[in-house]
Please model this.
Amino acid sequence: MPTPILPSGEQFLTILPELVLLAGGMLLLVVEMVWPRNTRLSAVVGIGTLAAALVALAAPWQLAAEGGRVPFLLNAADPAHTNTLLSLSGTVVSDGLALAFKAILLTGGLIVMLMSARYGERFRNPAEFFSLLVFATLASLLLAGAADLLMIYLALEFLSISSYILVGYLKFQPRSTEASIKYFLYGAITAAVMLYGMSLVYGLTGTTNLYPTAGRDFGVQTQLQTLLTSANTRPAILIAAGLILVGLGFKTAIVPFHQWVPDVYDGSPTPVMAWLSVVSKAAGFAALVRVFISLFPAQEWVGPLAILAALTMVLGNLAAIPQTNIKRLLAYSSISHAGYVLMGVVAWGQMQAMGQQLTPWHLYGVPVYLATYVFMNLGALAVVLTFYEENRTHEIDDYAGLSQRSPVLAWLMVFFLLSLAGIPPTAGFIGKFLLLGAAIAAPGLWWLAVVAFVTTVISVYYYWRVVQVMFLRPAQRPEMKRREWGIAWALGLAVFGTAAIFLGAGGFLEMFRLHLP
Amino acid sequence: MVDVHYTPIIPLLPLVSFALFVLGASVRSWLGKGARLSDQVAYVSVALMGVSWLLALAVAFDVLVLRSGQPYYYAYPWLSVGSVLIRFGFMVDPMSAVMLIVVATVAFGVQWYSLGYIAGDEKQPRFFAYLSLFSSAMLALVVANTLLELFFAWEIMGLASYLLIGFWYEKPAAMRAAKKAFVVTRVGDTFFFIGMLWLVLQTGTTDFANLVLGTAHGGALSATGENAVITGGPYLKALMGTTTLGWIALLIYGGAVGKSAQFPLHVWLPDAMEGPTPVSALIHAATMVAAGVYLVARMYPIFDLAAPLTVLGITFRPLGLVALVGLGTALMAAYIAFSQSDIKRILAYSTISQLGFMFIGLGCGGTVVGENGVRTFLAIGFSAAMFHLMTHAFFKGLLFLGSGSVIHGTGTQDIWKMGGLWRHMRWTAITFLIGYAALAGVAPLAGFWSKDQILEAAWEYNRLIFWGALLGAGMTAFYMTRLWTVAFTGQWSGGEAAATGHQAVGGHGQHDHGHGGHGLPHESPRSMLIPLVALAGLAAVAGFVGLPKANRFGEMVKYVPPPGWLEPAGAVEEHALHLPTPLRMAQAPGGTVPDSPAVPHSSPAEGDSPRPYGAQQLAPEPLQGGALSFPTEEGLPAVGGEAHAGAAHTPAGHHEVDMGLVWRIGLLSTLAALLGILLGASGYRGRRFNFRAPGALTPMESAVYALSLNKFYLDEIYWAILVTPLFWVTRTARAVDQAIIDGLVNGAGLVTRGISVLSRLVDIWVVDGLVNFSGWICGRLGQGLRRLQTGQVQNYVLVVFIGVLLVIAALVPSR
Model:
């Protein structure tokens, strides 16, 4: 009979980063009241909050390690670990996946916060904007660590509602408002669909706990296994899986739940777009992996999801080609990257479906890819933001001659675009290398790897067009002069991450093993 | 004493000058002084390249002479995924030592030459920055210790090449050429990448020490240099004689086809001549395009130890395909060179043709399985190809720099607008003559020796290829004589100003160099002539390291098959050592292979067994009979139960020189060269027959001429069958996201009753809600909402529902 090993006080340590974020977000609201419109102060508080949360992540990490070696993804049939890794009535889990994703999300949040340090000046109440970013990051952390369907839903809604406001934060710009409303409508409907799916699961099993918890020796997973064998309940479960996929597919922007992406990204403030394309997406994938790998049996869903992954890669990359606006280009590119990550999830599922031993290629491909994506995509968007702040344009043609106007910015952009295209020597290569390796090593998925290869080549074409404009077109405007510390730090972190993950790839992978002292 | 331990510094120094440029420019920009650096940066770049060159010579000397070919190896662990361990580091074996000499010498010469060539150009500092970036990547490629690292350098080279081809981006042609080069080579790179990944999954390593080098063979590393030779490394044992290896080889060869401009991916190289001429000399003649040859040579065991492949009923060995494609490319490019009138394009096609020769050499080496299943080994091809790579780098670099000097002096690239340069540009002409004679195969210049070795290899392998290659040699002599006769002899025909009525379709007289307004041609500045003279010296004497009787080059740079390979084909299986091949086994039913205890399996529950990321882990999985403790320093892995002492002394170790054959081939090739020269000289001097008037040709002859002039129409064909359809697909994909969705909405009612019901629900639920919502918010947000009403959220949501239905439809009936 499993009982929680953690004393109730220590249980709160597992959500220490979340608590830090909560406190910081509240503090920011106070700052807004006491020192209104003080962008610099509120930015410092926001950055400090995220940095503190990153440090606070050490607590659950250490706690998890006390139980010996931590499994990367908690398995319901692993009573020893369910005792130590679940907390707060089984709603929060801190296995390797949750911890790794929390680190990714907090890093992404920190870089976005740095990017928007100066951006906040244009708002009437900057601290509120920063506090929303903090709360949204908090929601994403909760989603990554959720071990209960209800918790997943609540975290997802928390995440969505914060995002709706953030997207529309430039409230005097019609585009921003329009994006916000589109996002809201789309998000509300998909969430409703997902909730319906969850209610089906609850109705069939009588529980929303993914894992067995105190007082109950079964979780949803074990129940579903039995129910799937019966012809009466089987369709209901599979329908539930499809419905739940809608909500998670919306967050992760996989085809056919991707259509909001270009409009919303284009209309939202650039830091918010950065946040959506990286943090929100990563959190969605954490939940997607959790639900699909450990809840629904893999052999049921790998086929359809593999097709969705292929569609996402193909559509995202092809639709990016004709774009003339850099934000829309990166929006479609973000869709295509969701396809690559989904390919990793499918490869993982395929190995489970075939009953094969999981290799690190399958386990770490998804989080490693998202970690690299945090750095490279935020780096590219930081360049876009810097460029916009001085030139007030997102048209690719206006990047002409950037190599003369600001060589550093141009070379940074090349570096990030190379990484997005998966060309060495950048982190993006490591991510693609792992995911493609995972797909090739999984039996019967070679066709998906081929699709990924081909679409990667296509992606080079449109990323490269930006490089071409920057380097091989004469400059139309004077040199760029604007400098600002927040973006400089954001760019520095992004370059560091993109280069360091490549150079120290071995050590980076070691981190995912949670090999703790 | 500078020795091999200085290897890492060689690629680092040019990288430093590149970094100096970027950082310097940003610091200046930060200080508000303008991002453009002063021209003095060029001297820093040349100086650093000079130091790098000296180091390269010292390292090569150390490896080739002091260490008698014993390779230098240093690596640190970089990435370990499961049982795949990738280390990063440096390896210098005799082959890379030779490449180091070639690349560093040409790079240094070209940088020096560029001081004069690019002087006064507004973008001069950037030019040197890009050149340095390229040199760094190319040197890194040469000293790479794994295929992966080679691939990285390969990609950066592609980037630098792109930037340099498009350097004069004011010319639309240059921009187009840059893009074309990048995209076309990228096609090859994709195959390369797939091949590499497959290789990693099969063998668990990309390390040259494990894959190709005899040193890691378990045999004692002696000081005789025998271990330096390339053989199939231990990790290939399990794959020897399989078709898998053959397919991997062909995929990797795909990368070489792109980079080394082999048919059908050669189309980018002639266009790349839009770049500045020093760039053409360095990247598109001497070094980068030869990287493909180097790649195949590096991976030679993979090509050689594969089983023949069968496609569409035709069975061929991978190397045979390499040779055939090489021959086809060589002949085709030489034929196109006949009719071109742009001096750089003629040289570009000549480069494509000569690269084809190198691939003929590689393809005509290796193992051939006879009728009775007996494997015979042809030794000469491998070293002949590398030998030709070296001599070609010198004389073709020389020719390109010479053509740059000519363009600098005359202001035109059209050979018909030149003439009589011999009188006006004496130094350029003399050095060009040496390069021309070396390329045409005149004894005893460098090209003669290396080309003869390739012919010898072809003779041993296949007589048809031999005669084809001999024809190619004659054609080479012909088009080079044409170039020489038209541009350098006779009278000055007035340059750009003279509107001669010649059929100058290919040459559009575009200025490679900035200044127009030429009167008589003038000799170039000394900074340009010194590298010319130096390279001319090398083009003259470099052949003497590979004389038939005293083939120093061939003794050092060679490939021998691993022991046991040359016995009858079936017998090899017994000899194959059993080696763990990590991921392949994970796929095998059951998931494990009994005798591979070292393969760690990880499971989600247990994770991996705790392995410190340290020294023990570095050792690759053991060979049969003992751990191969591969040290991170250049090493002596003299462990292992059965030492294959004398492994390298297998029958192929010593190539018996058949002097009679050497004489015959030398005579034949000289004859071919003489014939080509005579035809060219007499034809273009207008003595006996006159090739100068294409207008007066018979229809048959004009068709033949047009085929050459229009490069076999390949560009047009590619455009029609690849580019146009791709654009169509792109437009369609965009339409899918916009237009087709509207169509879906309209067609929704027709598809099924279910969808139509759903559609109505959506209408009631979403659209009505939307309208109400709109009314509420309308007053405040007028502008945004007007967009929204015409915006297509309804459609988006409908797509979601259709998507759900399809996903569920796919989920439910499964199983």
Q: What stands out?
A: Chain B touches chain A through 93 residues (CB under 8 Å).
